[in-house]
């Protein structure tokens, strides 16, 4: 059975992405990762100091609280989704570049240039 405890070791960086951090506590996840030597980072849109004891590092996309009377699904998540999209696109570009570099190493510089152009890179 695959669980957090048998997947995490001292080279693991566990990234938790959450909008508010209020839906569920990450304390059990944090303690499980720490027992195995992992590092836990939380990326959260809303400013929430209650997450301090549930991670090693925390990154907020905003230091401004949205109105407390709104339910989570009523709040604007524009910044959160823009960040996720930009991050995902950057990772995809990096993966494509690494793939093109690997192909270039195997097939030579001509194919490396061709693949770079195919994936939208300029060498």
Give a quick precis of the structure.
This protein has 4 helices and 3 strands; from the N terminus they run H-E-H-E-E-H-H.
Describe the structure.
This protein is of the alpha/beta class and 123 residues long. It has 2 domains: 1-67, no CATH class; 77-123. It contains 4 helices and 3 strands; from the N terminus they run H-E-H-E-E-H-H. The chain has a 3-stranded parallel β-sheet. Helix 3 (78-107) runs antiparallel to helix 4 (109-118).
General form: flat
Helix proportion: 40-55%
- What percentage of amino acids are in beta strands? 5-15%
* String of helices and strands: HEHEEHH
Largest sheet: 3 strands, parallel
Arithmetic mean of pLDDT: 78
Radius of gyration: 20 Å
Query: Please, how many domains?
Result: 2
Notable characteristics:
123 residues; 2 domains; three-stranded parallel β-sheet; 4 helices; 43% helix
Summarize the SSE layout with pairings:
Layout (H helix, E strand, L loop, with lengths): L3 H4 L5 E6 L8 H9 L3 E6 L12 E4 L17 H30 L1 H10 L5
Parallel strand pairs: 1-2, 2-3
């Amino acid at each position: 059975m695959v669980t957090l405890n048998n997947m995490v070791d001292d080279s693991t960086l566990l990234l938790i992405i959450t909008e508010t951090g209020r839906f569920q506590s990450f304390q059990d996840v944090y303690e499980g990762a720490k027992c195995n030597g992992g590092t836990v980072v939380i990326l959260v849109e809303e400013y929430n100091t209650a997450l301090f004891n549930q991670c090693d590092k925390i990154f907020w996309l905003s230091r401004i609280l949205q109105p407390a009377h709104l339910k989570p699904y009523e709040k604007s998540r524009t910044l959160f989704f823009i960040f996720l999209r930009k991050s995902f696109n950057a990772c995809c570009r990096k993966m494509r570049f690494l793939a093109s570099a690997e192909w270039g190493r195997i097939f030579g510089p001509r194919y490396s240039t061709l693949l770079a152009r195919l994936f939208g890179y300029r060498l």
